[in-house]
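1st attempt posting a full record on here, be nice pls
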Amino acid sequence: MPKIENRCFDPETIEVLRIALDEAWASLPPRQQTLTSKTDLAERILALASIGERDPIRLRAAALNGTSAAAP
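the predicted structure (as tokens):
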């Protein structure tokens, strides 16, 4: 995972990141939510965003990477 450095994101990007996080979290079943840190999901999204990714589908997939909800 890329290192997260101090980055500034414009309001539109922040909204894309927030939506990706919310959708990733909502896609986890309740049992998986108890076993998963929402902070970890956010860190995965921010790591990808810090290298320029803005596609919400890829951001959501990055958040879910490593959880049992990650789809092949």
